[in-house]
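Input chain follows. Return structure tokens only.
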Amino acid sequence: MTTTDHDNPGTDHDTGRRETRITADPAQPTIVITREFDAAPAHVFRAYTDPDLVVQWLGPRRLTMHIDRYDARTGGSYRYVHTADDGTAYGFRGVFHEVRPDTRIVQTFGYDGSPDNVSLETTAFLDLGGRRTRVTTTSLMQSVQARDAMLASGMDRGVREGHERLDELLARDAAPRTPADEHRRIARTFTDRVRGVPPTAWDNPAPCEGWVARDVVRHLVEWFPAFLKSGAGVDLPAGPSADEDPVAAWTVHSDAVQALLDDPATATRTLANPHIGEVPLDQAVDRFYTADVFLHTWDLARATGQDETLDAAKCAELLDGMLPLDDVLRASGQYGPRTKVPDDADVQTRLLAFIGRAP
């Protein structure tokens, strides 16, 4: 293979930072981009698929990114625009053919300025151990000429700057997220599932025994306001009932919880409960409510035939915290008996099995 960066061996030994390698086969219309990141595959994968994170790193620093849609799941699509200071806009779009959590993304890539030259991109995430990941993206173009034109456009500078920005983002992401940040992220996914429920599916059976889909929303919008009122004297605004309008019921409730967490005064307040004692209010929301929203995202998706994929890193975090409390959690009646899954099951399957679901 030939390389577009002959002077870059892959690692800057003076700084110890990883460098981006961009290579092109003279006989095949491909570009291969490789970079190592100091983060676990789950965190790097999330940066590639969460639109709130993608907008923070994809592309050169001099351009502002606006995302019209970024539905990073198998069968989903995306469109975004990069805009220069002089107003020049560069639009890109494509379809996600396969999204395999933490391991692989296959998508098309098209540029509005050259609509006939669509490439197929496969991005693989390799776990190197020690919280390091090698990301390799292989772009298959329609001709060697199209590939060479792409290289000549200066795309390598944009790719390298984007990877530098991703390094910075991953370094920030390694720091603990605030309860407000975590709720915003997890509630957004649940909101997407709520809005994706077909009107005729709200009475579909849900994984929780005796529940239908709307009961998943009902549970969240009813138990938590009472918990806050009794433990911290907080009154959340009430929306319509889940029977009347489950989408509006969830939206009003979720927005109110986010506003509570975004209020700087919340960090100075406590919540008191006879079972848990006194806990800082924002931590209580995060530990007991936001985690519940995360788990019930799967229930709603399963009930209504939507994407059931959960964030693997969050699954691992919750499972690690629950395992030592197995007897206590089981005695509380909150979860049913554990279900059996293979020893080599993925972390989402093991978490769901632990709380009594049949994934």
